[in-house]
Fold these 3 entries.
Entry 1:
Amino acid sequence: MTPFRQFLAMSFLKWALIMILMLWSFFVFIYISKLNVENVLDSDYKMTRLNQATTSAEQSEKRNAELEALIDEYLSDKSIRPEQKWKLIDVIESKLVPYAALRNKIIEPSVEYEKLRRRVQSNTQEMWNYVNSEMIELKKIGNPGSANFSVQIDAIINAAAEQKNSLLHDLDQLAEVDGYEAWRLKEAAELSDLMQRRLHHLQNPEDCGKARKLMCPLEVDCGYGCELHHVVYCLIMAYATERTLPISDTCLTSEGASYGTWSNDIQNIQVVDIPRMDNLIPQTPFLPQVIPEDLAPRLTRLHGDPFVWWVGQFLKYLLRMQPQTHNMVDGHRQKLGFTKPIVGVHVRRTDKLTQVKSHNVEEYMIWVEDYFNRLEMSQPVVKRRVFLATDDPKVIEEARKKYPKYDIIGDPDVARTAAVSTRYSNSSLNGIISDTHLLSMCDYVVCTFSSQVCRMAYEFMQTMYPDASNRFKSVDTIYFFYGTIHNREAVISHRAKNTIELSMNVSDTLKIFHNLGNGFSKGKSLQTNQTGIFPSFKVVSTVETADFPKYMNIN
C-alpha cells in the first residue's frame, strides 16, 4: 500500500474514531442532560407533594382540634345522658379515629386517686352531718340569756351548709376537669358491655336440650321489688355455676336428662333447683355482697360501690324492655312532663308502716333542697322539679301544698293502684315498672333503703352513669341486699369517749348496722365482738371478691 493510501486509511480510522467519540459524548451529554432535567422535575414534584402533605397535615390538625373541642363540650354537657356520651365515643373509635389518637391520649387515673377523690367527698358529707347534728342539739338546749340564740344557730347552720355544698360542688367539678372523664365513660361502657355479652352467652346456649340449667322457683311471697331481687340472686348463682336460667331468648324450657336440688354434688346433674338465698344450704362463696375477682380491679377504680354496680348489670339484663313496655314508660314520662334536672323521691306508706318507721315529707324534701342548692352553683335551674313516686296519692297532694315553688310531678292513679287491695293487679304492675324506671332516670334520688323499690331504682341507676353511688340519700337505713351489708375496715383508730362508743384499731373489721346521719355509725367489731357507735369517717367499705368463672371466650 502506498504511503498516501496508508495515510488515507489511517486518517479515515482516526476520523472515524473521532466521530464515534464525538457521537458517544453527544449521547452521554443528552442522557446526563435528561437525567438532570428529570432530577430537577422529580425534586420539584417531591417538594410540591411535601408542601401539599404539610398543608394537609396542618388542616387535619386544625380539624382534629375543632373535633376535640366539640367532643369535650359534648362530654361536659350535663343535659346529655351518659349513655349517649358512651355511644359517641364508640362511634368515634369505630368509624372515625380512636379517641385516644385524636387527643393523643386517654389518661387513666390511678386506683389511689379515684378512691381518695371519693373518700374526700364522703368525708365532707360526714363532717357536715356531724356539725349540723351538733348545732341542732345545741339549739334544743337553748340559751335563756339570749333571745337571738336560736336565730344565730340557724345562721351558722345555713352558712356551714353553703360551704359544704361549695366543697361538694368543687369535687364534682374536679371530676369533670381532671382529664379522666373520658376514661370513666369509656371504662363504664366497656365493663357494662362485657357483662351483658357474658350474660347473653350464658343465657343463650347453642343446644338448650343439653345445657346445664338452674331453676329458680318464684315461691317468695312478696311484691315486685322483692321478687325481682330474688331473680337477681338466682341469675347471680347461674352466672357463678355457669348454668342457664331459663329467662332467655332461645332457651325457655326446664327439660333435661337429670334433675336435682342444690347440694355439694351437682356437677353431674343437668337441671338443678335452687332455694331462696336465706335457705341455701350448703352456702357458697358467690353470695352477695361479693363481686368477681377478675372484675374487681377495674370496678374498685371506677365505682364507689362495686357490688351495687354488679347488681345493676343483672337488672339491666333482666329489665330489657319490650317495645310495648318501652312505649308505656315513655308515654308515662311524657304525660308527667318528666324533664331534667329532676330529683326522684320515693315515699312508701300503706303496709310498709307496719314494718318500719314513717317519715314525713319534710324529711325527704330537705335533701331535695340541698341537692338543688348545690346544683345551682354550677348551672341555672329554671324550675326545681321533683318526680314523686308513692303508694299513697295523698302524699302527692301534701307535697304540692307544702312546696308550691317546686314542680311536683306524680301520678295519683299509679299511687292508688299500688295500694294493698290492688297491688297485684296488672295496672299496679305497670305502674311500679314505670315508677322504678323513672326514678332510676333521675339526677338524684331520695328514698328509704328499707324499701325494695328504692333499692332497685338505686341499683338500676348505676347503669345510667359511670358511677351513681353518691346520687342518692336514704332517710332511714344503709344499702343492703337480701339482708347482707358490706363490712367496713377501720383506717383511723378510735378510742371510745363514753360507754356507747366503740374502740377500734386500724385494720379492724366492723359489721355495720346503721349510719346514724350525725357523723357516726353503729356497728360491731369482729375483733372484740363489741357493739357501739364510732365516727363514720374513720372507716371505709371493704370489697369482697370470689373466684367466679372468667368466661375467657367472652372478652
Entry 2:
Amino acid sequence: MSWGTELWDQYDNLAIHTSKGIEFLDKYANFIRDRLAIETEYAAKLRRLAKNYQPKKKEEDDNEFTSHQAFRNVLKEINDLAGQREVVAESLQLQIIQGITLLSKTLREERKKCLSNGTYLQQNLSSQLSALERAKRNYEKAYRDSEKAVDNYKKADMDLNLSRAEVERYKNIMTAKIQQSDDAKNEYANQLQKTNNLQQQHYNELLPEVFNRLQELDEKRTRGIREFIIGAADVESSVAPIIARCLEGMVKAGESINEKEDSYKVIERYQSGFTPPTDIPFEDLSKQDPESSQESHYNNVQSSHLTVKGTISANRIKKRVGIFNIFGSNKQQKIIEACITLKNSLTADGQKEDFSDLPPNQRRKKLQAKIAELQQKIAQETAARDGLMKMKVVYEANSSLGNPMTVEGQLNESEHKLEKLKIDLKKYQGYLERANQIPMASNSPQANRNNLHNGHRVSRHSNGSTEDNNEDGDDQPDDGGSLSRSDSEDNVAQIQNGHNNNNNGVSLSKTHLNNSSSASPESGLGTSHTSLPGSGQGSAHDNAMGEDAYYETEMELLQPLGTCRALYPFEATSEGSIPMNEGEVLQVIEIDQGDGWTRVRRLNNTNGWDEGFVPTSYIECTLYA
C-alpha cells in the first residue's frame, strides 16, 4: 500500500503529517541533548564529589586503616564511574545528536522539494480545469445565440410583411451563429479532452509519485528514530560492563574492611608502652611515728593538688637547688635563647627531632620509620652516584659523547647529599638505640605512684637517697632507685657525649633537676612537702638548716616560659603531678625534656600557687617569643 494510491486526495493532510514527523524528530533530538547535559553534569559532580572527599594531607596517618583504604578505593571507582558517564555523553553527542541533526536537515530539504513539485502539479491541474470551464461557458453562450438566431430566422421567413432582403439577413445571422456555436463546441470538447488526460495523469502518475516520495521520507524518519533509540541504548550497554566492574570494585572494597585489623592498628598507633599503675598499698598508721603518720595523712589529702610551691604561700617559696640555672642576672635573655633553640630542634609537624615528646612505643616506631626512610634515600642516592660515576668513565673514555667535567659537579653534590644522609642515619640510629635502653615505664608518673619497701612508704631526699620509715627506724637502701633518676642519668650522659636529643640548652635545667633532687612527677619534684623543715624527713643537713636558713634560700616565683591550654581533663594520681580541667589555662614554667611531662603552675586562691607536672600530650603550649 502506498500513499499515492490510497491517499490521492489527501495532499494537504500529508503535508501536515510530514511536517509534524520532522518536528517530532527534532523533539527527540532535544531530549537527547538534555540527557547529554545531565550525563555531563552528573559526571562532573561525581568527579567533584570524589575530589572533595579525597583524604587530606593531615589525614594521611589514617590511611593505614582498612576502612579508610576501602573508602579511597570507592572514590577511585566513583572516578571511573564518572569517566563512563562522560563516555556516554560523548557517544550520544557523536552518534545520536549529529545523526539526528543530519537526518532532520535532509528530510526538510527533500520534503520541501516534494511539496514544491506537488504544488506545481496542483497548479497545472487547476489551470486546465479553469480553461475547461471557460470553454464550456463560451460553448453554452454560442449555443444559446445560435438557437436564438434560428428562431429569429423562422419568424422572419413566415412574416409576409418583410422583404426578401430582410429575410436573407436573418438567414446569414443564423448561419454565423450556428458556426460560432459549432466552434465553441469543438473548443469545449478539446479542452475537456485535455483536462481529462491531465487529470488522469495527475492522479495516476504525477501526484502519486510525489506522495510516494513523501512516504519514503516519512518512513526514513521513522526508521531513523528507531535506530537512534537503539543506538542510545547500545551506548549505555557498551559501558555497562565497566560500570559493573566499578560496582564490583566497590563491593570488594567493602569486603576488604577488617575491623580486627583496624583495632590492632589503633593499638599499634596509640600504645604508649607504659605499664599500668600498681596497687596502692595499705598504710598502717599504728606502725609509724606520729610525724610520719601526720605526713602520710597530709600526702593523702593534698598530693592530688599540692606540690612544693603549693604547701607554702605564693610569696614565700623555697628555692630548688640546682634547677633552672639559666635564671640569673640575664635570665630573660637566656629563656628566649632556650626557646629559640627548642623551636629550631622541632620537625616540620611540630614534633621534636628525636621524637622524645612521644611515648616510648610511638617514639620507637617513629624512629624506625625515619631510619627506613633514610636508608631508602641512601639507596637511591647511591644508585644515582653510581650512575654518574659510570657516565663519567664513559665520557673520559670517549670525549665525543660529553665532557666529564660536567658530571663532576653533580657527582660532588651527590657525594655531599649521601654523606649528609649517612650522618642523619647514624644520628637516628643512636636515638633508637637510646630509646630501646629506656625502660618501658620510666616516663609514667602513675607507674611509680608510691615507692614502697615491704609495705612502708619511702621518702626521697634532695640528694636522691631514700629512707624507709619502718617500725624499727632502720635505713634501707632503695634497690629499685628512681625511674626518673635513671632517665636523668641517661640525659646527663647524652649531654656529656654531645648527643642531647633536643639539641638545645633547655634540657640542662631538667638534667640539673633530676641530678639534684630526682625531680620527676614520681619522686614528688624532690622538694615536696616531705622535705620541708620540721617535717621529720630529709637529710640531717636539711634539718639542721632551721627556719632561718630555709627562708634564706627563698626566691621569687619562676618566670613562666609561656602558657598552655588543657585539651583533656587530667586527674593527678601521683605525687608531683597536678590535676587540670579541659580548657583550663596554665602557666608553663618548665618545658618537656623528653619524658612526656611538662611542669605548669596556676593560681590557687586558697593556697597561693599550685605547681606540678601534667602530660605533654594533654596540653597545647604557646611559648613566649
Entry 3:
Amino acid sequence: MSCLALSLQPTNGSDILLQTREWFPPARALVALSAFRHTRMAFATGKHQSVEDGDTSLGDDPLAASSGQLIVGVESRYRVVYRLVNSIYVLGITTADQDDSMNNVFECISIVNQAVSVVVTACRGVDVTPEKLSRKYAEVYLALDIVLRGVSNIRLAAMLATMHGDSIAKMVHSAFDTENKVRGADSWSIVEMQAAEQQAGVESFSNASFELPLETLEAGDEVAVALAPNVSGTLSEQQDKEVKSEEGEGEKDPFAASNALGKPEELLGGFKKDKGQSGTDLTLALAGLEVTSLPPPAATESTHIGVEGFEGEYGGIEFSNDGSTLAEDFEGMNQAWGGGLDASEFVGPKKVPKSQGLGGLELLQTGSDAPPTVPAGGATPLENFLVKKTEMKGPEMYISEEISAEFRESLLARVGLMGVVYLRTLPPNSSGDKETEFSFKIEGTSGVKRVVMQSSRVSSLGNGMFHVRTAPSEKPIPILKYSFLPRLTPLPLRVRLIKRHSGTLLSVMVQYVSNPDLPAPLTDVTFVVKLPVDPTLLKVSPKAVLNRSERELKWHIEEIPLKGSPGRLRARMPVDSSEEDGGEEIEVVGYVKFSIQGTQSFSGISLWPASEGKTDFYQVNHRYESGVYTCN
C-alpha cells in the first residue's frame, strides 16, 4: 500500500481536506495529521524561543522546508510525506514499516507531487490560499480521490486541462480513454465491435456454398486440355509398363540361378577414370593423407634437475638413422632415469636407525643425517616451482566496518559507524554455476540503528535470522549494510589537536590514546596534519614526512599500546602573519588513517550458522578501517 491518505493542511488553521482509502479509517489519519501539526508547532516554538534567548545555532525550522518526510506516532507509526506550497501543506500518509518502506516512500512522494499539481492548477498558480481552494473545492476533492487511487500522467494532464470551464462529470469520466487516444490506440468498445464483425464474417464465409454453371465447367475442361495435351498418352504408356513388369515378375522362377554368376570379374568396375592430370601429379594424390610430424628438436633433449635427492637428466630420446636396436636406444632405462630414483646411491648399505618421536616419518629421509643446505636465495629450487594456494572449502563471510569521527580539541563532535556484511561464493568454474543457498543469524545488534539488505539475494526470517540465495560470483557480494547509533558507537582512538600562535611562530601538538577495550592494539596508524602554509623552517618530534605539494605532515606509528600513556606528535614552524595583527585565525586540521583485520568485528556484531553444529559457511578475518577521522 503506497499512500493511505491525502490531506491539505494550512500553516495556521484547521485542515481543509482529508481523502483516505476505503480500508484506512479516517480516525487514524486524523491522529497522524494531529501529530504532524504538534511536531511542527513544537519545532516552530523551539526556534522562536532560541531566537529570543539569543541562541541561533539551531538553524532553520526543519519542517519549514519545501518538502520532506516525518515519522509520527508511538504505537501506530506512520510516515508523513509533505510539500509546502505557499502556506498550504500537501500531506501524504503511508506506513512506516521496515520491510517495504522505500517503495512506500517513493510511491507516496509521486502521489503527493500529483496532488500538488492539482492544487496549483485549481488556484491558477503557486499562490495557493484556503480562499481559492474553497472556490474549487468539489473539483479538488474529486481529483484528489482519483489521484489517491493511482492515475497516469496522461490522464492527470487531461483532468487538469478540463478543471476550469467544464463540468465536473466531464473532468472525471472523460479521461478513461484519454491515454488510448494519446497513444493512437482504439477504445475497448471499438475493438470489441471490430472483433464481433470479424467473427461474423468468418462464420458467413465458412457456411457459404457456390454452384458454377455447366458452361463454365466445360470452358475450364477445354483450357485444361490445351495446357496439357500429352497427359493421357503419358498415362497410358506408364500403365503398359506396369502391366509388363507384373507379367515378367509372375513368370520368374524363385529358385533360378543368379545372372551375376556368368558375368566376368571386373576389378576396376567400381572406380571412375579421371582423364585429368591427377594420374601424373603426386601432390594431388597425397593431398588427403595425414602424416604425423616429428616433435621439434628442443623436445627431444633431456632436462637437468638439480634438486637434492633427485639430481639427474630426465626425459629426452635421441632419434638417429644409425639403425640401432630398441635395446640400445633404451639401455639407460635400468639406471632409474639417470640415477634420480636409485636409493642405493644416497642412503647407503647401512640400515637407517629408527628414532622415537616422529612415528616413522623419519624413514622418508633419503639424504644424510645433516640438515639440507638452503641456497643463498632463501628457498630450494623445488620451492621455486611449487606455489601454495589455499582453496575455498565453501562460502565465506566477513564484516567490513568503517568509522568516522570528528574531534574539536578534546571533545567528540560527531561519530558514525557503517558496516557491510560480504559474502564470497565459490568461483563459477569450481561450483559449476550452482547457486549458493544457506541461512545464518546475526548477534550483538543492540546498538544497530538501521539495516538495509539486498532483497534480490537475502530475505529476513525474523529474530536476526536471514536466508541467502545467490548465483556464484568472482567478487565478494555485499548482502547487508547497517549503521550504528552514535551514542553506542565504540571509539578505537581519542585524538586531541592543540595549536598555539605566538608572534610569527605556530606550534601544533597532536595527542592520542588508544581504547583499552580493543581486542588488539592498533598497528600502522598514520597521522596527517594539514599545514596552513608551506613551511620554510620546520621542527618536528618525532620524525615525520613533509609533502610540500599537498602541505601535509605525516607521522607513521607502528603500534599504539592499549594501556599506555598518551602519545604526542609535535611540530613548530614560522608563519607570515602574527597573532597581534588581528587577522583571521589560522586553521589546522588533522586526519587519522588506520586499517586492521581480526577474527572479531569492532562493533561486536558476530555471524553464526542458523543451526548449531552445521557449517554452512566459513568466517574469515573481519576488516575495520577509518573513514573521515579528523581533529581540529
